[in-house]
Amino acid sequence: MKKLSTFILAFIIFQVNAQQRNLAEKLGYSAEDKLLIIHADDIGLAHSENIATIEAMKKGIVNSTSIMMPSPWATEVAELIKDMPGLDIGVHITLTDEWFNYRWGPLSGKNAVPGLVGKDGYFHFDCAAVAQNASPEEVEKEIRAQIDAALAIGIQPTHLDSHMGCVFYGRPEFVVSYLKLAQEYGIPAMMVEGLFQQVVVPNKELFKEINLDQVKIIDNVLIASTEIYDSIGLPEYYTNVMNELQPGVNVLLIHVAYDDEEMKAITTRFDHWHGKWRQGDFDFFTSEKAKKLLEENNIKLVTWKEIGKL
Q1: Which pLDDT score is estimated for 238?
Q2: Can you give the residue range of the structural domain that contains 242?
Q3: At 81, which CATH number?
Q4: What pLDDT was estimated at residue 4?
Q5: pLDDT digits 0-9 by tens, 195-228
Q6: What is the DSSP letter of 125?
Q7: Overall domain count for the chain
Q8: How far is CA 87 from CA 80, 140, 148, 195, 248, in A?
């Protein structure tokens, strides 16, 4: 029985790897092509975040974003993108609020999902508290509420992803809801191959209602860390990413906003992910240098919208 189980697991992993290698080809590229989604998280967070993100998509090389529906500035996004019908915009599933003086809570209602609410009446500050206090049913209810809220203001989501990675933190049942609702609404959910094998494969019984063959698994997710910011800096990191990008489908996660008074107030007491960081992301990805790096490294930009059509 043990040998049979090992064989089955190996077969599943083989199938996953085969899909991973073929995703680029399914998009019409070769397996050796370097494909990249330059994805600006957190649109809807603030007015500054909204206008900077849209500017970076119109004049820079940012080609994807996702909206934080519980955030107070989410509804503005629908107005700002009316002249961008082809926009690649997903729902940035938000289960936390990490800011000290800028707070929000669940769209499904505090009484409906009490495990997602902290002592102050708003979302918990971190993913560990969500995993410890929220039930899978509550998480699924809130994910659905956020997708429905996006649809209600006229946004047709091209994908789902997760703010701070909380969907993937600690509870495989959260991932079940994430993939289940992506399947129900007919949009891809961001899932990287390593995470798929770490969370989904060992718990495949939990995912029996999901057609795992249809999960679009990308090769790599890249994001600057606080250590990178403090050591080599963002421009050097992004330059290295472009120069060393591997073949396959890659997602580079960034955060763009203007370093203005609004962002300074929102990010009070933060040494990272603040206005200065987000201004740096905006400056790099609207620069001629960034455009040149794409050309020099023969990197092709793709979108979640294209992946969703598969």
Answers
A1: 98
A2: 2-308
A3: 3.20.20.370
A4: 38
A5: 999 999 999 999 999 999 999 999 999 999 999 9
A6: S
A7: 1
A8: 11, 26, 18, 27, 22
Rounded to two decimals, the pTM is 0.92
| Angle separating helix axes 47-59 and 275-285, nearest 10 degrees | 10
Cα–Cα distance between 147 and 156 in angstroms, integer?
A: 9
d(CA 93, CA 160): 7
Tokens of 257: 């906003």
Instruction: Give backbone dihedrals phi and psi of 294, rounded to 5 degrees, phi first.
Output: -60, -45
Q: How far apart are CA 75 and CA 142, in angstroms?
A: 17
Whose tokens are 């918990």? That residue is: 124
Q: How far is CA 217 from the centre of its chain?
A: 13
Residues 6+ apart with CB under 8 A from 276: 259
* 92 beta partners: 161
Q: What is the largest CA-CA distance in the chain?
A: 63
User: How many residues are recorded in the chain?
Assistant: 310
User: Which tokens go with 98?
Assistant: 């990490």
Tell me which residue has tokens 């740096």: 280
